[in-house]
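Hi F.,

I've been meaning to write this up properly since the lab meeting, where we talked about keeping a consistent format for the predictions we share between groups. The idea is simple: the sequence comes first, exactly as it goes in, then the C-alpha cells exactly as they come out, then a line or two of notes. No screenshots and no reformatting. I'm using this chain as the first example so we have something concrete to point to.
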Amino acid sequence: MKVVYIAEIVGKAGVYAFKKAMPELRRRYPWDFLVACADGATGGNGLGRNHAAYLHKLGANVLTTGECCFYKKDLTENIEKLPYVLRPDNLNPDAPGFGSRIYKADGKKIAVAVLLGQNGFGRLHSNSPIVHLPILLERLRLETPYIIVDFHAQASAEKKTLFFAADGRCSAIIGSHTRVQTADDCILPGGTAVISDAGRTGSAESVGGCEIASRIQEYLSGIPDWTKDAWDKPAVQGVYIDIGTDGKARSIERIYIAVDGPSHAETEDSAEE
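Output, unedited:
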C-alpha cells in the first residue's frame, strides 16, 4: 500500500498549489490512497463545505482537520454527511462527525484517524491522545493492518511521546499543525513511520502560509489579522509512505513540489471554489 499525505493546505494558495501539482504528484509518487490535511484550507483557518467538496474532487480520498474543525458553520452542520472529512477522534462523544473511518484502496481496507494534542489549544478541548490511542488502534486493527494517524499537535515533545507509544501498532503517525516541514522523518523500530510535521501546502515564502507583513504587524500591534493571503512561491509539501502487507512501513519520503505562480484569473478561481 502506497500512501501520499499532503501537508496542511493553507488558504487559496494552498488549494491552487494542490490542484496545479497533481500531475507531477501522480508522476513522482504513484499512490493507492491520498490523505490531505485541510485544517486551514478556507481563509487560513478552518475548512468550508465547498472547499471540502472541491479538494475531494481534485483527488483527496480523505481530508483531515484539527483544532479548526468546527470553525466554519457550513461544514459543522454537514460534517455527518461527508464521510471523507475527519475531525479529531479524541473529542467528546457529543461532537458531530467522525474521527476515524475505514476506507477502500485498491481492494484493501485502510484506516485513517485524527488525534488532537492538548498543548496550546484554547478553543477546542480534547481528551488525552495518549490515553485514547490504544483504544483507537485496537479497534482499527480488527479491520485492517493499514492504519494512518494524523496527530494534530503543537508541541514536538507531545508528538514524539505519542510516536513511541504507538510504535508497532499502526503504519504511520504524521504530525501536523505547525506548518513547517521537519527533517526527522524515519521508521521506528516497531515499523511505524513518523514525522513531527509534514509541513504546509501553499505559499512557501510566508509565515505558516500567511502574508508576512500582516504577521509582523500582529506581533507589533497585538491585533490579529488573518485576511491577507500569501502567494509567494506556492508549493506542495507532505510525505510518501510505502507500507508492507503486514501493516508496517517500509519507507517514508518527504515531498516538496514547487508550482508556478498563478495568473490573476486563477487566483479568482481559487477564491470561488
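Notes:
The longest strand covers residues 234-243.
The domain at 2-272 is CATH 3.60.21.10 (Purple Acid Phosphatase; chain A, domain 2).

If this format works for you, I'll send the rest the same way.

G.
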